[in-house]
Known about the structure:
four-stranded antiparallel beta sheet, elongated, alpha+beta
Amino acid sequence: MFFDYIYPLLLLILVWGLVSILAKFMRLDRKGITIYPLVLIVRSKRFLRFIENEAKRRERFWSFISEVSPAFLWLVLGASILYFIINLYCLSQGSVSVHGGIPVGAQLVPVIPFITVSGKILVYLLIASTIAIIPHEISHGVIAVRSGIKIESTGFFFLLGAVIGAFVELPEEELTDVIEDEKRDNMFKLQNLKKVLAAGIFFNIILFSIFYGIALNYNFVMSPFFEANGVEVVSVDTNSPAERAGLVSGVIIIKINDTEINDINTFIDYMRNVSPGDIIILYGVNGEKYIVKTSINPKNAQKPYLGVVIMNHYKSKLPFIPDSMYIELFNFIYLSMLLQFIIIITNALPIFVSDGAKFLLVFLREKVKNKSFASLIYLSTNWLCLIILIANFILPLVK
């Protein structure tokens, strides 16, 4: 499995490398465009002006963000460490579960376009990453401007051909000068830095909550546009009664014998009254008819066995919206929710370059007088978290 990823990744790096060399010859950096292997960066003064203007608008909203985000970051920092520890344990046990739509024990797979991610998912990822990363950086920039912290540059990036985002770059000395300054009045600057570092993650929490709420109430949200219209066969077991009857994935069942099937619940309710060996007739949405003789369920001899996996099917109420848009929109919303979650927990995890690591560094400078002890806490925490994160990637590859 490891070599399935490494060779295509090397090829991708080679192609990006050749493009970056070409960009050097064309002197694109004079136009604010820089191409490195795997990443394209476009610096934009317009984006900076947008952030500066936004800092003057919606004062109540941004004041709320700056005041509450540091407290939330502490909670998320602890939760991110706990999540990766639990995920690592579940990986070691081979146990995968989903809690509230969030997978635990799932393998972490690197994003490599056209290799680990392709087709519709790649398009969804490009859009979802834009929604997740750009507001994150805008939040950093707006709180920095409102706190009187200088912004060195802003712009957008295109990573690996699969992720679109933005960046707000603060001068490196802005962080180091404040941390090294021994003056008492410097504490105010430290507090402002914490607000800047926490703002991006807090905005992602807001977006995660929105996507989570939509996903949780998706049927209600989409009810003006779609209506229940039977169940769709997702997959058919090999040598099952359903396969012998000719059922294939994609078939939409709207009736069993004389009973209308509107959704999974009506399908299950009907099957409760069917015994092993009974013959039932399934009717498709296009008039197809499948005669199925049920067999004994391998898990329960008292229940019938069809051998299908089904999901609810919804019909569009509007002629210009295809039925398939229902599930496609849900997939996009769910992926967006997951991406928001991933950005939150990885950015909050103290791993040297993350917002969580910088936040921890500023906090230790503010609260711990002994610099050596503060440095020990900072380095130990970061190395431990980095090892845990790497182990989450490596363990499935070596098992």
